[in-house]
Amino acid sequence: MYSKDGVDYFVLDAHVALWDARVENRRNVHGKQFIDCFFDYHRNLSPESEHWSYEEYLYQGGDRLMKDLFEDGYVDHAIFQPARLAEFYRTGFGQTEEASALAAAHPDKLTYNHYFDPRDGERGLDGLREASERFGLKGVKLYTADWHGDSRGWRLDDPWSYRYLELCRELGIKNIHVHKGPTIRPLDRDAFDVADVDHAATDFTDLNFVVEHCGLPRLEDFCWIATQEPNVYAGLAVALPFIHTRPRYFAQIIGELFYWLDENRVFFSSDYALWTPRWLVERFVDFQIPEDMTEYAPLTTDQKKKVLGLNAAALYDIPVPEHLQVAHPPAAAEPQAVAVA
Amino acid sequence: MTATLERPTAHGRAEQVRAALGTVLDPELDEPITDLGFVRSVALDDEELRVHLRLPTSFCSPNFAYLMASDAKDALTALPWTGRVVVELDDHHDSDLVNRGLAADAGYRGTFGHEAETDLEELRETFRRKAHTAAAERCLTGWLRAHPDEPEGAAGGVVLGDLAPGRERDALLRRRAALGLPADDGALVLVDHTGRGFPADEVPLRLRRARSTRISVDGNAHFCRGLLRTRYPGSGEDQVDRPEGAEAADVPAGARLLMITPVGG
């Protein structure tokens, strides 16, 4: 919980990872390039006081994670969103065993989401069933740009993807997080392209599609589909740290998201360990739309409460103490649609 | 070896190389690679002109990377006095593939094989349209701010002749020319890529969409510029300021011109 000026905020970090990018876990040069890219994001967008050393950045472990999120970071609950990246790292990038064990030890604080890859075919469907049973999955994180053998990516609307989504529906895995953003190899199977989310969201209206990084670098394409699909949500991972170096850009992002989606469909995410949540929570609570940006309404305290935790808590059925709720909670909201010409 | 009577002086050649590279755009960011600091080095001798390009991360889109590198090679090869032209992309996850493809003039499909199913021209066209949309929005938002009593819908009737002269109008005219749209004073500003305007009741929504496109372009441009500076210390000196979307944290870019290194004898 975070408190400021007599107001208490429930904080749900909807996108964290326990990764291992140390040299011994790297399979090839791409493993180095990938973490170096993250490290540059970290150095470029963080306040100087929050910069980590490269060594610290490669691996944090469970104790450090618990401290950064829950002791120092004001987080009440966090959700693991692991990326497999098995072509780059020996045991993958996100550490399934370590993260799921940590979540099992702290069920009140951590939720473990797993991943699937439709290119695993029938075997992968069995794997998803097993993972669902073992981890009690409420959600999955999908990385459509992941390399896999000769393939450098897949689409959410591929026939095999649909078989996996059908299985998610059957297993009660209702939250589908899709990485759409800074990517590894889009090419023709353009991983920036959110059109595949559009198709899947239309065909699986009973599932929730959380677009991580809110479609950046193609914010406009994302907004356009999210306007038309009420089961599409925006994760603020990577967008949020702009609040420090580019506050006007961040104001525009949040302003556009509220306009096209509404205040109930935007999630706070630190993307730990890209960034730690502490400064992001503090800055977000202090943040306001610049006065000269008259095209956007000022953010209200209730809107900030929703983004910081209540919206994601509603989707994941995570209990929120009554006194931290708002008068118009997200669960009761009717999705707001913008008339599309 | 290839010197001809028309071969310009060393200074003239450097100017021409810079001008040629200045015609190469990052399609998504809608800026020349020279302004973005993507040109790492240029080396010129009697035998060869060798250019190295660098990008903000190892994982920048390979299709855009290929497009910029091959455009650079084409622009330099077109100079009448160049002999062998080598363009190489540094520190990218596909550097080897792209550099081999460029050396062999294999083309996009020849370079990426089965992954390159569609033509790059389609990609270029998509981003030409976005660049135009963003440029029109900048002009119309400026016009609306200068006419605070006009409703947003009035933007649909604004014509090129109504726009104040200056950088934003010039930029819009360049984007229009790239799409083959008219440039006369009576032409509507808010049009789609075919030059068609919108019914009055659709104008606010169209403008709103255009705004999100402009925010994307400006935001990506500054993010990429910042990442390049983080990745290559000192590269900020090779960047030219971008006023669109600039914020307090932006340090003024350097004004260093491309340095050409003479190599060999």
UniProtKB/TrEMBL annotation, chain A:
This is Amidohydrolase-related domain-containing protein. Coiled coil: none annotated. Residues 13-318 form the Amidohydrolase-related domain. InterPro entries: Amidohydro-rel (IPR006680), Metal_Hydrolase (IPR032466). GO terms for molecular function: hydrolase activity. It comes from the Bacteria. SUPFAM superfamilies: Metallo-dependent hydrolases. Pfam families: Amidohydro_2. Gene3D superfamilies: Metal-dependent hydrolases.
From TrEMBL, chain B:
Residues 15-87 form the MIP18 family-like domain. Pfam families: FeS_assembly_P (PF01883). This is Metal-sulfur cluster biosynthetic enzyme. The lineage of its organism: Bacteria, Bacillati, Actinomycetota, Actinomycetes, Kineosporiales. It comes from the Bacteria.
